[in-house]
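Milestone 3.1: sequence recovery, worked example.
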């Protein structure tokens, strides 16, 4: 049973947020071509320049052209190396502020029947993992936890009860819509003061079959705005889970645009932190890679649109690459050439060749291999993004969490099919 306080919180969280006693609707999406960021020449925008360079010479190289299924396709792999090098030179900011430890994590708790129970989609080891996850995650001292794939309300209840015991407050959206988007945010209660705004958004562009006749999925995002009590800084934290699968790159990229526009409209004096399983990495060496149901998987180059588009519209920076030579491009080139052996052995038995600090979705994770083995590019799918006023936030540390297998009910395996991504930020006090 939920405690009285947790139950009351659940009842007070409708599909629009409550702030200062009034309902605040989620913003409407802006039609393609009507936002100023749509029509920019990509060559003029640092995070988009590598996209322009990979299009045919005679192609329309405004961003709007690639946000169209009939638009130009890449003829070479869009390579963000130059952008990474620029980001490596960016200062990590002040290191003497108040620590804020943030985690984004896809916990892979999807286990749902559909078509009157005739079909089922189930991630590996769900019953055991759902019982172990709350204690494992909440004992590690995170200040903000941004979760994806907490699909069932029973899992919200389980996490909410554990969160309450550990001093967190939580937001999972409305009960009706939550079952469709599966998002949840936990924040340490002592860090919140002042007026709060919670919003629950669902993307205009969807792969409709996931809703019906599929397992009632309609993808979206949550945001939560509050004053960070130790510093007085306004902060907006968000979690999102855009569309999966390479061939659905356009739907996913339009979803990233919608969320980016929303986050980009946040007041300039507010710190924005986004955690997401973006279902896309920054770079793919080959356009065709992997096999699904006997057919080769393609359109990986188009898949690389999502990561820069999110940053462009949101004014965001990828926390893991600021001031760091993370090595996305070398890690992708370290992958062995795909062959059918991957369908039986992760990376055809060559997991040791690939750097262990980059990919968050990889066949070297036994749960990921069980679901996607040989069908997808291993990649850095999970991300933390940041937008902050100059001098207000420093990046002290970033990395991966929940990588090592753990013992759960006598079986040893990973806690999820994705690895978590964490950052320790340092927040400077607001000027009085």
């Amino acid at each position: 049973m939920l405690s009285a306080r947790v139950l009351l919180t659940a009842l007070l969280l409708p599909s629009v947020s409550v702030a200062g006693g009034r309902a605040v609707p989620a913003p409407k999406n802006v039609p393609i071509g009507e936002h100023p960021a749509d029509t920019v020449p990509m060559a003029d925008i640092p995070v988009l320049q590598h996209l322009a360079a990979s299009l045919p010479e005679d192609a329309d190289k405004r961003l709007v052209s690639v946000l169209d299924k009939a638009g130009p396709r890449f003829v070479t792999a869009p390579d963000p190396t130059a952008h990474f090098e620029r980001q490596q030179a960016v200062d990590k900011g002040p290191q003497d502020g108040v620590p804020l430890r943030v985690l984004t994590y896809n916990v892979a708790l999807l286990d749902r029947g559909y078509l009157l129970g005739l079909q089922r989609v189930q991630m590996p080891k769900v019953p055991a993992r759902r019982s172990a996850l709350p204690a494992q995650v909440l004992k590690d001292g995170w200040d903000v936890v941004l979760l994806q794939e907490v699909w069932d309300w029973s899992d919200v209840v389980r996490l909410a009860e554990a969160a309450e015991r550990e001093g967190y407050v939580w937001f999972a959206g409305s009960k009706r819509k939550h079952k469709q988007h599966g998002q949840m945010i936990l924040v340490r209660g002592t860090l919140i003061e002042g007026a709060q705004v919670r919003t629950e958004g669902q993307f205009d562009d969807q792969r409709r079959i996931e809703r019906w006749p599929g397992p009632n999925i309609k993808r979206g995002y949550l945001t939560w705005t509050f004053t960070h009590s130790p510093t007085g800084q306004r902060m907006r934290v968000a979690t999102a889970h855009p569309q999966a699968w390479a061939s659905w790159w356009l739907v996913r990229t339009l979803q990233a645009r919608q969320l980016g526009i929303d986050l980009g409209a946040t007041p300039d004096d507010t710190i924005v932190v986004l955690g997401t399983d973006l279902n896309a990495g920054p770079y793919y060496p080959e356009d065709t890679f992997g096999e699904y149901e006997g057919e080769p998987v393609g359109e990986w180059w188009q898949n690389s649109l999502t990561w820069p588009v999110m940053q462009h519209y949101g004014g965001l920076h990828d926390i893991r690459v600021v001031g760091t030579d993370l090595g996305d491009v070398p890690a992708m080139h370290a992958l062995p050439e795909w062959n059918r052996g991957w369908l039986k052995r992760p990376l055809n038995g060559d997991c040791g060749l690939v750097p262990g600090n980059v990919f968050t979705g990889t066949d070297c994770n036994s749960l990921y291999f069980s679901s996607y083995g040989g069908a997808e590019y291993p990649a850095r799918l999970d991300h933390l993004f940041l937008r902050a006023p100059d001098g207000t936030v420093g990046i002290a540390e970033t990395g991966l969490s929940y990588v090592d297998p753990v013992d759960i009910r006598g079986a040893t395996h990973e806690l999820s099919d994705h690895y978590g991504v964490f950052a320790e930020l340092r927040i400077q006090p607001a000027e009085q």
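DSSP finds twelve helices and 20 strands in the chain. The chain has a mean pLDDT of 92.
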